[in-house]
Amino acid sequence: MKERSLKKQHPFAMLSKLTGSALLLLLPVIQQLLYRPQNAIEIIGSMGISALYAIGVITGAIIFYNTCRYKRVGHGIYLERGVLIKRKCTIPFENVSTVTVERNVFAAIFGAARISVDTPAGMSKKRDISLYMRRNKVKFLINKMLNGLKTTFLYTADNFRMVLMSALWSNPMTGLLLLAPLIQKTGNILGKEFNSIVIQSVDFRTDLVSVGITPAAATIANILVLGWAVAMMFQFFRYARFSSSRIGNYIAITRGIGNKNERYTKIHEVSALTISRTLSMAMLKLRSAGIFAVGSGKDKGDKSLIAIAANDRELGSAIKGIVGFDTHYRRRLRPEKSRILSYIMIPLIVTAAVLALVSLLIFVPILDDLYFTALWISLAPLAWWIAFRVYAFYNSSIGYNKTCAMFCGYRKLSLVEYVIPYQHIQFVEIRQNLFQQHSGFCNVRVYLYYEKKAIHTVKHLRLADAEEIVKQMERRIG
Fold first, then answer.
1. Which long-range contacts (CB under 8 A, 24 or more apart) does 409-417 make?
2. Interatomic CA distance for residues 146 and 148, integer angstroms
3. H helices within 10-110, ranges in order?
4. What is the pLDDT of residues 161-216, one digit of tens each?
5. Which of 205, 256, 451, 468 lies in disulfide reach of 260, CB 3.0 to 4.6 Å?
C-alpha cells in the first residue's frame, strides 16, 4: 500500500494568521500619525520601515503555512511543524479525548474549517494539534474517528427558549436597561437646570451647550439599549441550532449560526457534570447542564454545554442519555436556617452604602428631581442580588450517592451544582474563617482536575455534620 504524502494546511490558514496580526499592522499607521515626517527623505524612510514591517508580518504568515504539514495514518494523525525547532508527532485516535471543529463565515466562504485535537497530556491553554483543512477532509477525519458508531441519544434545544435565554444571558442587558432611563433623566434635569441657572449670567452662545445636553443623553440611552440588542443577537447566533448527542463512547455537541462549532469528547474523559441556573432561569423553571473534560476549558465562553434552557424532564433525560451520571441524592446536607444572614450580609452592606450615597442627592439643589429616579434605579439590581442570595441559601447543599458526590453552591449570580464521580475527585477540604471557628460552621471545598485545577465551594454548613458527610465521601474516593 502506497504511503500517504504530507499535505499542507488549507490556504485560509494564512489569512487567519494575518487576521490575528491585524492590530500589529496598525502600528505603521500610528507611527505615521505620531511621527509626521516633514521632508521627502523622512517620508520615504518612514514608509520604508512600515513596508518592511508589513512584509515581515506577511512573511511570517506564509512561513506558518508552509512549515506545518500533516497526513492521516492508519491509527491517527501525523504532524510536522516548526522552523528553528522541527517537531514531529503522531497522535493515535484512541488517545484523543476531545476534537473541536470550528467554521466561521469567512472560513466557510473558502471551504475551510479548523480542527483541533486534545489529549489528556496536552497543555491547559493550547491544543495538541490545530489545523485548517478542507471541510470534506475534516468530515472524513471525524467519520474515521467515530468509525461507524451509531447515535444512541439526541437532544435539541427549543428555539423559543433560545431567544428568551439569549435575552437573559446577554451581559449588557441588566446594566443597559437600568442605566438608560437614568442617563436620559439626568440629561433632561441637567439640561433644564443648566439653562435656567447658567444661561442668564453668561454669553448667549452657551445656550448651544444646554440645548445639546438632553439630545445627547437620549442618544446615549438609545445606544446602550441598541448595544444590548446587538449583544442578544450575537448570543442567539452563538447558541442557535444547539444539539447534543451520544455517539458510541463520544459526546457530540453542535451549535452556532455563522460561527459553527462542533465538539466530540470521549465519555470517560468527563471529570464532572455541572447543572447551573440563574434566578431568572429558576423563575422560568429552566436549567442548563455542561461537562468538565479535557479541552472544554480552552475556548472562551461555555462551549461544553450538553443541555441549554431545559426543563427538569428534558434535562434529566439528556443527562441520563448523554453522560449517564446519577444525579439523585442518597444523603444531602443543607445550611441551617439560622445562617441565611450570612448569605445576604454582603448585599445588605452594599445596599446600605448605596442608600447613604444616593441620599446625599437631597443636599444638591439642582438634582432634587433626580433623587427618586436614582434611588429606584440603584435599588433594583441590589434587590435582585439579595433575592438571588436568598434563593442560593435555600438550594445550596452537599451530598452523595453510590457513584457520585454533589456540591451545589453559588458562583457570582449563578447557582451551580457539580456532580462528580468519586474517581475524579482530588480531595475535599473543610475551611473555617475566624468567625466560623467560634460559631461551629464551615465552608466545604472540592478540588477536581480536568486540564487545570477546578474548585467549587459550598458555604456556611454546620461543622460536625459536614465532617461526617465528607468522611463518607472520602471512603468512596479511596
1. 409/456, 409/457, 409/458, 409/459, 411/456, 413/278, 413/279, 413/385, 413/388, 414/276, 414/277, 414/278, 415/276, 415/277, 415/278, 415/282, 415/391, 416/274, 416/275, 416/276, 416/456, 417/274, 417/275, 417/276
2. 6
3. 12-20, 22-25, 27-35, 40-66, 105-109
4. 888 887 776 655 444 554 555 555 555 555 555 455 444 444 444 444 444 444 55
5. 256
